[in-house]
Amino acid sequence: MDNRNLETNIVKIIGRIVVPIEFSHEVYGEGFYNFKVEAPRLSESVDILRVTVSERLITNMELTVGSYVELHGQLRSYNRYIDNASRLILTVFTREIRLLTDEEDRKELLKQPNEIYLDGYICKKPVYRTTPFGREITDLLLAVNRPYNKSDYIPCIAWGRNARFCENLLVGDHIKIWGRIQSREYQKRYDDRVETRVAYEVSIFRLEYIENDNNRLENC
Q1: What is the value of pTM for the model shown?
Q2: Mean pLDDT, all residues of the chain
Q3: Are 181 and 123 in contact (CB under 8 A)?
Q4: 126-171 residue pLDDT tens
Q5: What CATH class is the domain 117-209?
Q6: DSSP strand E in 100-173: where?
Q7: 141 contact partners, CB below 8 Å, separation of at least 6
Q8: Under CATH, which number does the domain 3-114 receive?
């Protein structure tokens, strides 16, 4: 395993379990479980994030709704077929987990509840747009390498000055970003109904463009 790839995708989440843990799948005899965590923002709203954890990390650990946890890991992506269509699913793949039972310790940690660092390559032409309120946004899709020659494809959003800069990035450009994983609801319209769905993406706070890395079109 190339440990350098573990350093290109780093996530820390502090939050409260809001969806019970349930079995997800098994790989080479190792069971994996899913649950959801509510991570507060400084704006007092929250993000509801999907978490995946190995059974070996939670042996003798009582994870119940209402429990507070600290998670360290990576943001992983995979495709799932739902309603005859392929959807990109994002989950926090946990490498370390601990229960936060001390209230004072928990309050201090919740001041920075959700952080992510990604080092990857632009793998789709960026899309610049403005909101009805005039905010500038650029949508990015970032390919981040991980061990065993695999990659995760992670939607990201840049704002304001970063949005204007990202509008001109090319497929294959190398960037590093720091931000927060966020969840947001949106509505999918069908002929006879409207379905509310949840999208996950990384909101970029800071980015670094790696100018001398000639990887265009080679990593996606």
Answers
A1: 0.88
A2: 89
A3: no
A4: 999 998 889 999 999 999 998 888 999 999 999 999 999 999 999 9
A5: mainly beta
A6: 114-122, 127-130, 136-146, 150-159
A7: 122, 123, 124, 153, 154, 155, 156
A8: 2.40.50.140
